[in-house]
Each structure stands twice: as structure tokens, then as C-alpha cells.
Specification:
Layout (H helix, E strand, L loop, with lengths): L10 H40 L6 H17 L5 H13 L3 H7 L5 H7 L5 H14 L3 H9 L2 H4 L7 H14 L12 E2 L11 H10 L1 H8 L3 E12 L2 E11 L4 E7 L7 H16 L9 E6 L4 H7 L6 E7 L5 H28 L2
Parallel strand pairs: 1-6, 4-5, 5-6
Antiparallel strand pairs: 2-3, 3-4
Helix pairs in contact: 1-2, 1-3, 1-4, 6-9, 10-11
Length: 351
């Protein structure tokens, strides 16, 4: 039997859209209620466990409870699931926070977050997932790639980190510390052992979507080999981007060597020109990123590049072992915080 199409050609499409939208809202509502339920279950288990001082009591309670719940409500209440619920309530003790998050993040998001022990790190991933609407897969990928440790904010004092994350939560206010990274992992470019600067640039543009994902939220490509003319001399900015989150042009200079002090002057020239000729009235001053194969920590510290709006970072074309990357980043964070403490001590002693 042939079904005749309605005379109103838009009718079918409109109704299909309405059905799809209703299904999506229903799924969101169900997920929100389940997330809240899991927190309430975890909190109740927590109260039961805390009321008994025996070390093995919690395991016994959860094991027995799981068997009873599976018998009455199905396989979804496994021993493992109840442990997830308990951990959820422990990681997020404030019900109001859970109530607010339940429509923003799914249970699978929360399950990835609750096993991050460091509270500030957990809050970073939570706020970034909400702000950038990460899928669960993206969130897990960001955690696996040590995004927090690679982001500039991780090298700040804990109080500063907390304040910047609070500004992101309360006002949606993003700043460069939440965007800039070191190192940048460019293993997706699949470069050979030997490559030229042009090869690196070509590979980035070929995989621009992946590069933008690695750069972070809000980046838009503007130009390649942006030509600027000063006193009849031509200069070329390797890559020029705009970030709508922080309302800044971002110039990227690609280097095939370790950082050299002379790179500062070159980038400063680019940034001054961009500020004079390209910056709009409602924008913040341009930022520069110098991507090198290696850094010279003391030179960078003495040049005070952060005060010039210049970020120096390494790029890795091959993904190192996670343990190696963790140690490297841990050492970098410790070193950066020690430098901040030394500067503060110097200021205090010279007041």
C-alpha cells in the first residue's frame, strides 16, 4: 500500500522535529532524575557505613544490598554500581551542587569525575565540561591526556585556581590561563622523524579540526603566513587565530629548535602591529604563542614573557608514555610554583 505524501510539504518534517525534540527532552529529564537518585543512594549508603566502626562493614553492606536490589530491580544495581553511588556522594557532598549539575552533565560524565581525587582538578574538568559541552568521550580523552596539568592554570597558586574556576562557574568568565597549554600534543599530525617548519605548518592546516581541539575552546582560524609590513619590510606570522572566549587575536610562531631569547623581540613586534592595526575596540590585547621543540626555563623566567603577553610552549609530535608525561608535568608545576613563591618572598622583603 502506497502512503500519499501530505500536500503541505513541510508538515512531515515539522512533526518529525517535534517528536525528536520531545524525545531529547525526555531523555535529559530521565538522566537528570537518575543522576540525583544515584547521589541519594550513595548518601544513604554512606550514612549506614559511617554508623558502624568495623572496617569491613561497608563492603558487607554493599554486597548484601546489591543482591537484594538486583533481585527486586534488575542488574543495574550491581556491587560496582553501588560503589559508584557511594563515591559520587563522597565527592559531591552538597546536594544543591548535584541538583544544579544533573541537567548539565550525564551520569557517565559524573562517573568519570568522581574518581579524580584532587578537588581543584576535579572542579577544572567539571567546569570545562559544562562550559564547552564535552561529550563523555571527550571528557575521558581530556583527563587521559592530562589536560589540567598541561594548562597554564595548574601552575598557579591553589587560591588563584579556585578563584578562576569560581569565575568560570558563576560568570562563564574564561581567561587565558584556562586556555594556554604546555606542552601541546600534536601526535595526530603523524609527521616523520625529519620535517621542516613548512611541513609542520602544512600538517596543522591539513588537520586543522584536530589542531583546534588541542588548542582548546573558542579558537577560530584567521590566516596562514599573515603578511605584515613595517617600514617597507615584510614579516610573516606563521598562524593567526582568534579566540572568542577571551576576545583576543592569537599569533602562533612555529619553531624547529629550542627556545631562543631572540624569539621574544620577533613576537613582540607581531603583537604590537596586531594591536595597532587589527585589534577591535571591544577586544583584549593580542596574545602570542611560541611553539618550540624545547624550552629554556631560566631564559623564559628572566625575560618575563608573561608580562609581554607571550606564552612559550613545547609541542610533541609523538605521544610519550603517560608515566613520563606525568613526571614531566609534575616537575614543571612544582618549578613554576617555586618561582612564584620566590618572587613573592622577594617582593615582601623589599617593601
Amino acid at each position: 500500500m502506497t502512503i500519499a505524501a501530505p500536500e503541505d510539504t513541510g508538515l512531515l518534517g515539522d512533526i518529525q522535529s517535534l517528536i525528536q525534540s520531545a524525545k531529547q527532552r525526555a531523555a535529559t529529564a530521565v538522566n537528570a532524575e537518575l543522576t540525583l537518585l544515584y547521589w541519594q543512594v550513595g548518601q544513604r549508603i554512606g550514612k549506614a557505613v559511617l554508623s558502624n566502626e568495623r572496617a569491613d562493614y561497608g563492603k558487607q553492606v554493599i554486597s548484601q544490598l546489591s543482591k537484594l536490589l538486583i533481585a527486586s530491580h534488575g542488574k543495574g544495581w550491581s556491587n560496582k554500581q553501588l560503589h559508584h553511588c557511594l563515591r559520587f556522594a563522597q565527592a559531591f557532598p552538597d546536594e544543591q551542587i548535584v541538583y544544579a549539575l544533573r541537567r548539565q552533565l550525564s551520569w557517565t560524565h559524573m562517573r568519570a569525575l568522581i574518581y579524580i581525587d584532587d578537588e581543584l582538578k576535579r572542579e577544572f574538568y567539571l567546569r570545562m565540561a559544562v562550559e564547552e559541552v564535552w561529550s563523555t568521550r571527550t571528557l575521558n580523552s581530556r583527563i587521559e591526556s592530562l589536560l589540567f596539568e598541561r594548562t597554564a592554570i595548574s601552575k598557579k597558586p591553589e587560591q588563584t585556581i579556585a578563584l578562576e574556576l569560581q569565575a568560570l562557574r558563576d560568570k562563564g568568565q574564561m581567561n587565558e590561563d584556562l586556555i594556554l597549554k604546555d606542552p601541546y600534543i600534536l601526535d595526530f599530525l603523524e609527521l616523520n622523524d625529519r620535517y621542516l617548519e613548512k611541513d609542520l605548518e602544512d600538517a596543522i592546516l591539513r588537520d586543522l579540526e584536530q589542531f583546534l581541539l588541542e588548542m582548546g575552546s573558542g579558537f577560530t582560524f584567521v590566516a596562514r603566513q599573515k603578511r605584515i609590513q613595517i617600514d617597507n619590510d615584510d614579516f610573516y606570522i606563521d598562524l593567526l587565530f582568534y579566540n572568542r572566549k577571551i576576545k583576543r587575536l592569537i599569533a602562533i610562531d612555529l619553531k624547529m629548535t629550542n627556545f631562543k631569547a631572540e624569539y621574544k623581540g620577533q613576537m613582540e613586534l607581531y603583537l604590537r602591529w596586531l594591536a595597532k592595526y587589527e585589534q577591535e575596540l571591544d577586544e583584549q590585547p593580542p596574545l602570542g604563542i611560541i611553539l618550540c621543540t624545547g624550552k629554556k626555563a631560566e631564559q623564559i623566567e628572566l625575560l618575563e614573557l608573561n608580562n609581554s603577553g607571550i606564552h612559550v610552549a613545547e609541542y610533541l609530535t609523538e605521544l610519550p608514555l603517560r608515566e613520563q608525561l606525568e613526571k614531566r608535568l609534575h616537575d614543571a608545576i612544582i618549578r613554576a610554583k617555586q618561582q612564584l613563591e620566590h618572587k613573592q618572598t622577594y617582593r615582601d622583603n623589599n617593601k
